[in-house]
Amino acid sequence: MAQEWPTPSPPPTNECVGCHALPDIVWADDGRYRPGLLVTGDELAGSVHGDFRCTDCHSALGATMHARRDAARDSCARCHEREAAEYEEGYHGSQGVSDTVPKPTCVTCHGSHQVQPARTRTFVHRASEQCARCHEQMAERFAGGNPFGMETHLAGVEVATCADCHGYHLVLPTEDPRSPVNEANILETCRRCHTNAPANFVDVQMHVPTGAIPDDPRLRVITIYMLTLLIGTFAFFGYLTILGIRFELRKQAERARLRESAGGVL
Amino acid sequence: MSVIATTRVREELVVRRWSWWARATHAVLALSVFGLILTGMPMHYADAFWAEPLLWLWRGERGAAAVHKVCAVGFLSSAAMHVIGMLLAWVTGRWSPRALFDEDSILPRWRDVRQVGEYIRYLKGEGPRPEFPRFTFWEKFDYLAEVWGLLIIGLTGLVMWFPARFLAFLPGWLVNAARIFHSYEAILAMGFLFTVHYFNTHLRPEVFPVDEVIFTGNIPLHEIRERYPGWYKRVAGSNQVFRARTGVGPMAFLISAFYLSVGFVILMLVMTTAALEAVRYFGWLLTGAE
């Protein structure tokens, strides 16, 4: 869906980048290490917002330069209104994860200065890894034996990532009836790509743990059977090959010895 | 020495081991299996360091997936060629299914089990070389592993290619099962081809770097005497022996060199990655730590 974006203000005058591209900037006035303060031209050049003025997002800086630690994240909503509203409504926007881990914001997933359009290969490539930064255990489960996981690492934009089933800005718990992975909606979600998916499509396990032995007893039996076949076959033929090589070497040595003794006679 | 011997065209007594149809089937099979391995392995080990460079060959994962499917059709066609060949030979009276149960059949029999033990004793220097028939036990294993692998890989591949069709009458967990079967069987097949199959055909010191028989279809009588003494007894002096020119041209060397070297490289890459993965998943077995 094509969206009309407001025309950005004239290009930045480099005033900010003049200081913020210096490596020393990571040591803030209070002496603490703040890597976020370093903003390089490369980062900006690779960004879809590369032609913005700094103050387009860091709007509070305009009047009170450096007076407060400005979180530019609120500025996203000024253009991305719908996404911001969905985010506020969803789990990520409405719940803090814990006292020590703050709730994820726009930049947690999209990055800040190097922000990419969401439909690029680079972004989709990393999408599941982005989720995995917090949802570690699910990532471990997604990446391995499930029908999408391995391709997701490589994938062009057409391969499913976490967000394709779970939603992105409006991320909801599975119990929520509006969630695309709620029991009532899940078949419909499958059918967004697999248009002719039959009813038991939903029984395909999407979060099979990585690693050789899955939890599901049926898959466990299959895996152990295949592993046994694999190890057994190579053990047997490996043994024969080692015997064969030894046999061949002995034969060669014998021949060399015979040749030598024959040479002695002659 | 073998290089000189094989490039020199000579005439000798031979026996037909592979019909032209069988050799064509083998060519289709070899080519499609190679394509399947070179596209499938980087998709399976997607986060290995060699995955992206290999996928570059196929212009990315979508190209690889397309080539994988084309090769899958080739793979299944080779099976169809094999069956059609047998049926045609049966209809025209050149072959009968009864041959499956005679002495020189490719199907295993008790004698093969006995010969496993005999062969091990022979390699240890404790006994004579077994009287191998037309196909040794490892060659029979090679053939049956191919039949079994084709069934498993072909069926599970189709399930993953057309999940909606299959899930109309199969339970959903079978897609997961298909994935497990498909990848383990692929690794097993690849490992077997690039080690056991290669070592016992083209990499034998006597024939290195190429076993002519798959190009000419004929096996010299003297080779039968050394390698298949049981078969030799039955075939020597029969009307199956004829005089023919043997030796293959440089094209056969190029083909063989390509398959051997590419196969070896991809095997090493996969083995390294699989070993690292095994340590990651089963390391606790060694260290005892959870």
Textual characterization of the structure:
The complex is a heterodimer of chains A (about 270) and B (about 290). Chain A is an all-alpha fold. Chain A contains 13 helices and no strands. Chain B has one domain: Fumarate Reductase Cytochrome B subunit, CATH 1.20.950. Chain B has twelve helices and three strands. Chain B has a three-stranded antiparallel β-sheet. In chain B, helix 2 crosses helix 12 and helix 8 packs across helix 12. The longest helix of chain B is centred in the C-terminal third of the chain and has 38 residues. The N terminus of chain B is likely disordered. The interface between A and B is large, with 49 and 46 residues.
Percent strand of chain B equals 5-15%
Instruction: Tell me what portion of residues of chain A adopts beta-strand conformation.
Output: under 5%
The helix/strand series of chain A, from N terminus to C terminus, equals HHHHHHHHHHHHH
| Main β-sheet, spatial strand arrangement of chain B | 2-1-3
In total, the number of strands of chain B is 3
Shape of chain B: globular
Order of helices and strands of chain B: HEHHHHHHHHEHHEH
Key descriptive features of the protein:
heterodimer; A: 266 residues; mainly alpha; 13 helices; 47% helix; flat; B: 290 residues; Fumarate Reductase Cytochrome B subunit; three-stranded antiparallel β-sheet; 6% strand; globular; disordered N terminus
